[in-house]
Amino acid sequence: MLEVWTKAGDRLKSKVLELLRAHKGKPVSGQEISGKFGVSRTAVWKAIEALRTEGYIIKSSPRLGYELAEEPDILGPTGIMAIAAASGYLDDGRFYPQIDSTNSEAKRFAEDHPGQSALFVAEEQTAGRGRLGRQWMSEQGTGLYLSLLIRPEIEPSRASLVTQVAAVATAEAVEAVTGLEAQIKWPNDLIVDGKKVCGILAELSAEMTAVNYLVVGIGINVNQSDLPGEIQDKASSLRRLTGRKIDRQTLLRAVVERFGHYLGALQDDALLERMHQVYRLKSATLGKEVRLLGKADRTARVLDITKEGELLVIYPNGERERIHFGEVSVRGLDFYA
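The line above is the sequence of Bifunctional ligase/repressor BirA; the predicted C-alpha cells follow.
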C-alpha cells in the first residue's frame, strides 16, 4: 500500500506544481486545487509541504491560498513528472540521480512498457554516449542529460527526421532561455560562438514497415564553469557563454515543449517544410567548405541540406554527391582553417 500511495502522492505533487506554475505570480486556493484534482484539502497540504522540502518556495495565505514564488535549480522526480505531464505527448517522466545512460534506460523502458512514451533525465551519466560510440562527458549537477522515448506511427524511412526535429527544438529552446544564437552543425551538434554546447543521438527500433519506437538523447553543457583542457577550444557551456547560471528546469521545459511543437513534422509534410526552413537558417554547415572525414579527407562545399537530412556537396572537380551520414569538419570550426 505504501508504494501505491507514494506513486499517487508523486503524481499529485507534479499536478499541483504544474498548476502553480500556470498561475505563477497569482495565488491558487486550496479549495480550488482540491476540487480540480478530486482530493482532500489535507492531501493538497501534504503535496505543498512535500514540494517545499524539495526546495520550492511556496507562499501561503489563509484567505488567498498558495503561490509559487521560486523554483530550485535542481532536477528531481516531481519537476520531471510535471514537465512530462504538461507536454501533451509523453505518458511518464523518470528522474535518476545517476544512471549509465538515459538512452539505454529509455530503450529498457520501451521494451518493458509497450505503447508508452516517456522522458528520462539524469543528474549524472556514467556511460553517456554520442555518435559513433563516443563517450559524452556527463558531470553531475551541471549539465542537462535527457532522452525522449516516442512512438510515432511512421515508416522507418522517415525516422531519421527526428534528429532535425531535436536539433531545431533544442536550438530554439537555448535561444529562448539564454538569448544566445545557436547554430546546428550537421548532423547532430549545436554550436554557439563557434563552440559545441550540445550533442544529439537518435536510436531506432523498427520492423520492415513500421517504427516500434525512437529514442532521442540530448546532452547540453549548461552550468559547467570549467571544462577539460583538451576540449576547451572546441566546446563550451551556456554559463561560460552568458556569464550567468542557467536554470536547468526552465531549459528542460523549453526543450520538451519545442520538441513537441515540431514532432508532427515526422508525419506532416507541410510542418516538415516549415521546420526544414528553420533548420537551414540555423545551419552552421550550409554554404561552407567542409572536410568529409572518412572520405580520404576530401574537401567540398555544401550546396544544400535536403529535407531528409542529407548534405548535397560539390567537390573541387565539379562532382556532386549526397552525403547520408558521417562526420564533417566545417571550415572555421573544429580547427579546420
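Note on the example: The two ends are 64 Å apart (CA to CA). The CA atoms of residues 168 and 278 lie 7 Å apart.
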